[in-house]
From TrEMBL:
Source organism of this protein record: Marilutibacter aestuarii
A GO BP annotation: cellular response to osmotic stress
Protein name: Mechanosensitive ion channel family protein
Residue ranges constituting the Mechanosensitive ion channel MscS C-terminal domain according to the UniProt record: 345-406
GO molecular function (one): mechanosensitive monoatomic ion channel activity
Sequence intervals crossing the membrane: 28-49, 81-100, 112-131, 152-170, 176-192
Membership in a protein family: Belongs to the MscS (TC 1.A.23) family.
Amino acid sequence: MDGLNTVLPESLVARMQAAPEAAAGIDWTVTVLVLAGLLLLAVVVDWLTQRIVRPLLTRVVRASPTQIDDALLARGVIKQVSHVAPALVVYLGVALVPALHDTLSLVLGKAALAYIVLVLALAVGAFLSALNDLYERRPHAHDRPIKGYVQLGKIVVYTIALITIVAVLIGKSPLLLLSGLGALGAVLLLVFKDTILSLVASVQIASNDMVRVGDWIEMPALGVDGDVVDIALHTIKVQNFDKTIVTVPTHRLIEDSVKNWRGMSESGGRRIKRALHIDQGGVRFLDAAMRARLSRFALLAPHFERKQAELAEWNAQSPERASEPVNARRMTNIGCLRAYITAYLQSHRNVDHGKTLMVRQLPPGPEGLPLEVYCFANTTDWGEYEGIQSDIFDHLMAILPEFGLRLFQQPGGADLVAGLAALRAPGPATAGMDTDTNTEVHA
């Protein structure tokens, strides 16, 4: 029984050591009956605790106006603590069993004490979870989550409990075991490598306010494109827009590139950035007919007034500019289209006029002349945003023929069929030719 000296009270150990001498001559049946009575008492205490004491405490907690005890009840703190009572009966009563063998007494005492330590550790873990639940009810909880720190606290509690249980079972002091952990430092670092990395990442994420629950983030390398639903010590859960759940190690948010769309959500607007690819063959100067046609557009009236004054002043500076149109500055249909799109966006009620708004030409290429629209919708709702963007470009594509322009697109199957049909149709040069034999037909 020397192993109990480090984990049991001295008075209890003394009584256990004196029990065999005091009970000398006692029949073993008495020992069995007393031991059975002790175990039966533990069962009765457990029944009373679970059937009477715990339900009574539950009713008291539910009737209480405070939320703290409700959180403790929901996380099972009272349930865990209630299991201490029967183990405590066995732990304290084992020394009172007469003529009990030392080995059996030692085993029962250690088992009861180890169970008490385990239950208390689980109760502390449930208490920490209850604290996290109470914290998450606060308005700013999503901005500064503490779930990672709570999980770290649980790891510390469970580690201490594990060391204590091992110390109880082998009959050594917990401090002696802790002193021997120095030699296992390298092994522990290897085992808890992910935990250490996740802890550092959690601190950086929380201190720099990088990611919150509810943020829309993108990590293309990991297939992440959705809303953050949970931030824990080791993992972060993201629900993609296809409703799949992606679990990402916390430290990957520090190591990899992450796009967070929170700024867009907080700004109240979402960017529209799309180009119309114009067929460059239709770009030309305005003639009188097109000038008259475009003058019908109310949105272009300020542009015409301003541009005509500017061009007249410029061309008046040199006689050759006025005498020869090729030397003069003139308006173009593509320039008028840019002015029209700008005015159209400025008058659109679903475009945020307080943010950047412009229409610009990008470098021309084999797919035509890109005319890019850059503005912001005044909503962040995905469905509304797509509807606004589609309405804008529906209108712009439909208005292009008014400017003598058309969109550029690669030839499709219908275009190829029409082209082949045009080649096969007899023209002026083949009017007198047999189209089947390609020979001249004589009357």
